[in-house]
Specification:
It is a single chain. The chain is mostly helical. The chain has one domain. 81% of the residues lie in helices and 0% in strands. The chain is globular, with a radius of gyration of 21 Å.
């Protein structure tokens, strides 16, 4: 079977097509999460300074989110558009989108690198660093941003490997980075005694290896779409399409970074450095749990986009049904496990009594609404896959800005809540926004396909 036929998403049972894409992506997410979590595990167990170093690493989390946000701006804009044009059979436009995306990644990546290096100190203090945690945050942040371009190529251009149906190659993109990082982490941190600087250096080297892997594939013979120098000449119309669709992915990641900053600021105000360290652990657990969500929705996205471009609306509806069921079952299982064993989960990262005292109730509060996450993940996935960036952006803003931000300031002042009120903002937003997002998707997309099937038009 030729690659073009093998990666034709209009063939076969829809759930099999999605899982053929999703399983490698879930494995890639697992490996990707493991290497960031391993960073935190090693740092959290550094003798004598593990808690402060872990908190310092948590202070830099919004910087990582910012880099990821700009990679998503380009990748989640270009990738789905590429899938749609592949479904239409327009290879020329698909390749032009890929080339323009790479140009934007390089330009944005270099700009971010220079800006963050120049303003790292005030940025970290604004993010919630204290005199005790600043040295660790500054050391990690300054080294990490030197690999910004590598990270953005690896994350942003990997969408084009998956958009062509090469999910296993896309999985290996992440695997290469993760394996290199996991091997180098203990060597640099403990053998060479470089501490948190060693963790950052290992991460940059790993991202560089991953970027090389992506570029070699897209420039090679196996790629269905060719990365050509002529297509890297930035065209305003093409760039506008990419940015318009990618804006939803950017907003979701950027607002995550904003909320992380506010989490740190409010936790430092009402609880201190130990509460920020606890949030780092909570975020690590969340990252692990989200890997399957991301694998399923990222696997579903090119399938939905392709079939939408081919006007195969029955298959689009089938993809939505399957992804909803799979994500819902997964969310329920995770919800039960996390609420039952918060203590052992905390000890993976740090076993100090102070962090355990905070983390056990914090984890139970933070994840109490996790079962509703599936609804928003599926809703956002469908909106992005169909090019409905406006709705995806709205629900991202609704959750993180309109709901979470006010709660971060209101809940901690309630008597008896204090710093734990910060953690309560998460389940409140999960419930409200997830129901609103999925309901809107159901009536404006899923049900609309019944009405518009005969005309072949979906507004």
């Amino acid at each position: 079977m030729t690659p073009a036929k093998e990666n034709d998403f209009s063939r076969g049972e829809i759930w099999r097509v999605i899982m053929r894409m999703a399983v490698p992506m879930m494995l890639a997410e697992l490996v990707n999460v493991l290497y960031s979590v391993v960073d935190r595990m090693y740092i959290g167990h550094m003798a004598g300074i593990g808690d402060l170093a872990l908190t310092g690493l948590g202070i830099t989390t919004p910087i990582v989110s910012l880099v990821t946000a700009f990679a998503s701006l380009c990748g989640t804009g270009g990738g789905p558009l590429c899938s749609i044009y592949r479904g239409k059979g327009d290879t020329v436009q698909a390749e032009k989108i890929m080339g323009n995306t790479l140009t934007m990644i390089l330009g944005i990546g270099l700009t971010l690198t220079v800006g963050l290096l120049l303003f790292m100190e005030p940025v970290l203090y604004a993010f919630g660093a204290s005199q005790a945690t600043f040295p660790y945050a500054y050391t990690y942040g300054m080294i990490y941003v030197c690999g910004t371009v590598f990270a953005m190529i690896s994350l942003g251009m990997n969408y084009f490997i998956n958009a062509q149906g090469f999910a296993k190659i896309g999985m290996l993109t992440v695997t290469v980075s993760a394996v290199v990082n996991i091997i180098l982490d203990p060597i640099f941190i403990f053998v060479f005694k470089m501490g948190i600087a060693g963790a950052a250096i290992a991460t940059v080297i790993a991202q560089g290896c991953s970027a090389v892997w992506v570029m070699r594939f897209l420039l090679g013979k196996r790629s269905l779409l060719k990365l050509r120098l002529a297509n890297m000449r930035l065209e305003i119309a093409t760039a506008a399409k990419i940015l318009s669709l990618g804006l939803s992915g950017f907003v979701m990641k950027a607002t995550t970074g904003l909320v992380q900053i506010l989490y740190n600021v409010q936790l430092r105000r009402y609880g201190g450095d130990s509460f920020i360290g606890s949030m780092t652990i909570v975020n690590s657990i969340r990252d692990v749990l989200f890997m399957t969500f991301h694998g399923l929705t990222n696997g579903c996205q090119p399938v939905i986009g392709y079939n939408y471009g081919a006007k195969a609306y029955d298959r689009v509806r089938g993809a939505i049904r399957f992804t909803t069921l799979a994500c819902g079952l997964y969310a329920f299982v995770c919800w039960v496990i996390v609420l039952l064993i918060p203590g052992p989960l905390t000890r993976i990262f740090n076993g100090e009594e102070e962090l355990l005292r905070i983390c056990i109730p914090a984890i139970r509060i933070f994840f109490s609404g996790f079962v509703f996450k599936a609804c928003q993940m599926v809703g956002q996935c469908v909106f992005v896959a169909l090019g409905r960036s406006g709705k995806a952006i709205f629900f991202s803003l609704l959750r993180k800005i309109i709901i979470v931000v006010p709660l971060l300031y209101l809940l901690p002042v309630i008597p008896g809540l204090g710093a734990f009120g910060v953690f309560w903002s998460e389940p409140a937003a999960d419930f409200i926004c997830s129901i609103a997002c999925y309901t809107t998707m159901y009536f404006t997309v899923y049900k609309a396909m019944d009405r518009e099937h005969s005309s072949g038009i979906l507004s």
